[in-house]
Amino acid sequence: MNPLVLVQKCDNKIVNCPLCESESNQFFTNRFRSYNRCRNCLSIFMDPKFWPNQEEEKQRYLEHNNDVKDIRYQNFLKPIVEKVLLNQKSTDRGLDYGAGPGPVVQYLLNEAGYPIHLYDPFFHNDPEKIKQSYDYIILTEVVEHFHFPKNEFQTLYNLLNPNGSLYILTHPYDDDIDFEKWYYKNDQTHTFFYTKESFVWILNHYGFKNLEIEDRIIQFKK
Q1: Pick from 190, 89, 208, 102: nearest CA to 149
Q2: Measured distance CA(191)–CA(202) in Å, rounded
Q3: CA–CA separation, 41 vs 98, rounded Å?
C-alpha cells in the first residue's frame, strides 16, 4: 500500500485524508495522541505517528471478549445479524471480514442456517478468501481500525458480486459528540472515524448504488 502523502504548508505538516486524500486540519490533541479532520469528507483520523504496530494491534484484539457463547456480545451483534437475515438468502455467499479471534457473527448466522466464510489478517489469514467473490460482506467493529480506508474499501467493493451488500457496524462521528470525552477514540487501534459525509463519499467514489445509515449500522449496495 502507498504511504499517506505528507504535505508541507505554512511550516505545519498537513496529513492528507487516508480516505479521500484531501487536505486536513489539526483537530484534537491530548497527552496520548493527536487527530486531524478532513476538510472534504469530514472524517477524523489519528496522526500516523501514533498508529500501533502489528503486535500491539494483535494484543489489543486478544483483550476483547472472544467467547462466542457470551450473551452480551451476541446481543450487541444481533442487530446487524438480523439485518443480514432480513436481506440475504441462506444460499448467498457471505464473508465476515475482520472476524477476530472469536467470530460471533459466524456463530449466530450458522445457528440460523447461514454458512459464512471468515477472513482476518491476524486470526484467519487465508489469502484465498480475498481472491473470491461474495454476495455480502459483514464488518463488525472493523472499519475504524483501517489505516488505509481508501484501499480497503476498494478491496471490499471488488470482492462483492453485482447487487452485493456491505454491512458495517461502527460508531459514526457527528458534531454533537464531545470528541474529548468520546469513549470510541480511547482505543488506540481505532485510527479512523467516519461521518455521514465519509459514507456519502464512499458511495459516490466507488459507485455503490445505495447507502443506508441506521444508527450504527451502515449498508452499501453494489
Answers
A1: 190
A2: 18
A3: 24
Name residue 43's amino acid.
Answer: S
Rg (alpha carbons) of the chain, rounded to whole number: 17
Reported as a single tens digit per residue, the pLDDT across 92-113 is: 999 999 988 878 999 999 999 9
CB–CB of 146/175 below 8 Å?
A: no
Single pTM value for the model: 0.90
State how far the Cα of 90 lies from the Cα of 9, in Å rounded to an integer: 53
Taking a C-beta distance cutoff of 8 angstroms, is the pair 35, 47 a contact? Answer: yes
CA-based nearest residue to 156, from 78, 111, 110, 218 = 218
Q: How far apart are CA 112 and CA 12, in angstroms?
A: 54
192-193 β-sheet, strand order = 24-29, 34-38, 44-46, 192-193
Sign of the torsion formed by the C-alpha atoms of 5, 142, 156 and 27: negative
pLDDT in tens, 18-42: 999 999 999 999 999 999 999 999 9
